[in-house]
From TrEMBL:
This is DNA-binding response regulator. It comes from the Bacteria. Residues 2-122 form the Response regulatory domain. Keywords: DNA-binding, Phosphoprotein, Transcription, Transcription regulation. GO terms for biological process: phosphorelay signal transduction system; regulation of DNA-templated transcription. Residues 144-214 form the HTH luxR-type domain. GO terms for molecular function: DNA binding.
């Protein structure tokens, strides 16, 4: 799998590249700013990019802006945005467009090889990745009356794991449930949230957005 990395911190960037290379990824480019990343992707689109949310020249949202550009111009390229801080509103902005293959992960997760490589593979395959810390902060907010109130505790558990971008199989493993049981819970969640029509992938994203917005 071909991956590009964009981060202005050279040591961090090289560290991520080494970790991914050792895990079998082909790191085809390392750059220090968003403009260089977009240029390299235009020349030779990879399977996925890993991009810091803050880069030159302003160190604000260059990486997030690049992610949006890639979602629009290169929808087949998975985008994993890394952030040093829990910033839930940025995570929501990434997924609200409905684009496939996007993720938001805290930089501290890079120390976990399995977590990082799994996230890159999932966005490259068109999946959704949201850092568990972001999910926890969003769902910990005060909530007004919402369709989520109709869910049972177990359905909420299933939806919480789904909100991290996990598959039904991963939900089975996390919650120690059978495949059929998880499928039944997921169908029930869709029904209670009024998501009766459309492909399951789309309904999963809509269910996650409902959950995160509260």
């Amino acid at each position: 799998m071909r991956v590009m990395i964009a981060d202005d911190a050279v040591l961090f960037r090289e560290g991520v590249a080494r970790v991914l290379a050792e895990a079998g990824f082909d790191v085809v480019a390392q750059v220090g700013d968003a403009a260089s990343l977009l240029h390299r992707v235009r020349e030779d689109p990879p399977d996925a990019v890993v991009v810091d949310i803050r880069m030159p020249p302003t160190h604000t949202t260059e990486g997030l802006d690049a992610a949006r550009d890639l979602q629009e111009r290169h929808p087949s390229v998975g985008v994993l945005v890394l952030s040093a801080h829990v910033e839930p509103h940025y995570a929501l902005q990434l997924i609200e467009s409905g684009a496939r293959g996007t993720g938001y992960l805290l930089k501290e997760r890079v120390a976990d090889l399995d977590e990082l490589t799994d996230a890159v593979r999932r966005v490259a395959a068109g999946g959704l990745v949201i850092d568990p810390s972001v999910v926890a902060q969003l769902v910990g907010r005060q909530r007004t009356r919402s369709p989520l109130d109709e869910l049972t505790d177990r359905e909420r558990d299933v939806l919480k794991v789904m909100a991290e971008g996990r598959s039904n199989q991963a939900i089975c493993q996390r919650l120690y449930l059978s495949q059929k049981t998880v499928e039944a819970y997921v169908r029930s969640v869709f029904t209670k949230l009024g998501l009766h029509q459309g492909a399951d992938d789309n309904r999963r994203v809509l269910a996650v957005l409902t959950y995160l917005r509260g």
